């Protein structure tokens, strides 16, 4: 369907591409942009041969606007900001009001859209609802739950599905990843090729995974929450990865529960959490996933990191203590 819409130049004006990190959202969005800007009259676009395709391949087409965290579009924004500020969205809107250079279309790519501040997202709404003629906005995010519902409702939501583990494993073998690291990398990548490749070569990830397991699953007593939060309080920069790991661990436990096999192995987790994985009602897993999601939103709104961490630890230790 998507290929047909691109071939007929009938794509909706705003698309939201979501899915786990490394599934190919940015690759797909870039190809969609290249197709919309391609100068070929044929249906197979992007052709890869025209001048427009050559510029689109490097995201350098003059009718392509790229917004991403840390690479400001507006001259008033400092480099390496942790968020996408409202000034970048306002600059994008200004550029969209100008005449296109090529004439086919103008494409806006917003990568890491969850990094947009609430003000930036609100500023985007009117353009999403009433974009200039022949303007297409392609938004990519790992965490659609971090976007305003008003943003999501104005886009066609395209959810990228995980790749089969067998295929991810084949890619890692083709990339000559060390055999002893392939199994765990595939297991924790949730069907993401990019993430599996990243994990295979990142020893700091495996160290943090051990730390998260110890902090959130090893303790049963709530009296230990303050001690754990004090140990983490100066590591706010590690929060995104910590939450990502914690979320993946809950999903790993949920997979055991949905498998319905009481004898399923639950490696690494303490006995109480292995019991939780086999016996807890599904809504308790959803409760923990929601707690992680809420923590991510709170940090996005600059809520005190230690307070968010203690609230999250309270939720996990409270759940674990019952098993």
Account of the 3D structure:
With 323 residues, the chain is of the alpha/beta class. It folds into three domains: 2-159, 3-Layer(aba) Sandwich (Rossmann fold), CATH 3.40.50.300; 162-201; 202-320, Zinc Finger, Delta Prime, domain 3 (Up-down Bundle), CATH 1.20.272. Helix content is 52%, strand content 8%. The chain is built from 15 helices and five strands. It has helices at residues 2-7, 25-37, 51-56, 86-96, 118-129, 149-152, 165-174, 179-188, 193-200, 203-217, 225-232, 239-259, 271-279, 282-300, 305-320; strands spanning 14-18, 64-67, 106-110, 135-141, 156-159. Strands 2-3-4-1-5 form a five-stranded parallel beta sheet, with helices on both faces. Helix 4 (86-96) links the parallel strand 2 and strand 3 (106-110). Helix 4 (86-96) packs parallel to helix 5 and helix 10 crosses helix 12 (239-259). The protein is globular and about 65 Å long. 33% of the residues are buried.
What's a concise summary of this model?
By secondary structure, the protein is α/β, with parallel strands linked by helices. The protein is 52% helix and 8% strand. The protein has 3 domains: 2-159, Rossmann fold, CATH 3.40.50.300; 162-201; 202-320, Zinc Finger, Delta Prime, domain 3 (Up-down Bundle), CATH 1.20.272.
């Amino acid at each position: 369907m998507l290929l047909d819409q691109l071939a007929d130049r009938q794509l909706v004006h705003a698309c939201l591409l979501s899915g786990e990190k490394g599934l190919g959202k940015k690759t797909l969005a870039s190809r969609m942009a290249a197709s919309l800007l391609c100068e070929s009259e044929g249906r197979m676009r992007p052709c890869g041969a025209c001048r427009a395709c050559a510029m689109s391949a490097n995201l350098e087409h003059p009718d392509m606007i790229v917004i991403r965290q840390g690479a400001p579009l507006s001259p008033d924004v400092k480099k390496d900001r942790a968020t996408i500020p409202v000034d970048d969205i306002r600059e994008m809107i200004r550029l969209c009001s100008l005449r296109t250079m090529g004439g086919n279309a103008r494409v806006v790519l917003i990568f890491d859209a969850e990094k947009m501040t609430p003000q930036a997202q609100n500023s985007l709404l009117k353009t999403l609802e009433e974009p200039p003629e022949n303007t297409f906005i392609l938004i990519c995010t790992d965490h659609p739950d971090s976007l305003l519902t008003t943003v999501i409702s104005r886009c066609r939501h395209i959810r990228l599905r995980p790749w089969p583990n067998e295929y991810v494993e084949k890619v890692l073998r083709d990339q000559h990843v060390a055999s002893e690291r392939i199994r765990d990398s595939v297991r924790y990548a949730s069907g993401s090729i990019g993430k599996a490749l990243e994990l295979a070569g990142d020893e700091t990830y495996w160290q943090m995974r051990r730390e998260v397991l110890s902090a959130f699953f090893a303790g049963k007593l709530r009296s230990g929450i303050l001690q754990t939060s004090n140990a983490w309080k100066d590591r706010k920069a590690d929060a995104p990865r910590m939450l990502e790991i914690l979320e993946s661990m809950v999903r790993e436990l949920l997979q055991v529960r949905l498998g319905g096999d009481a004898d399923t192995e639950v490696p690494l987790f303490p006995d109480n959490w292995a019991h939780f994985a086999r016996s807890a009602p599904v809504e308790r897993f959803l409760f923990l996933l929601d707690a992680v999601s809420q923590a991510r939103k709170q940090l996005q709104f600059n809520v005190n990191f230690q307070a968010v961490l203690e609230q999250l630890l309270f939720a996990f230790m409270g759940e674990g203590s019952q098993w």
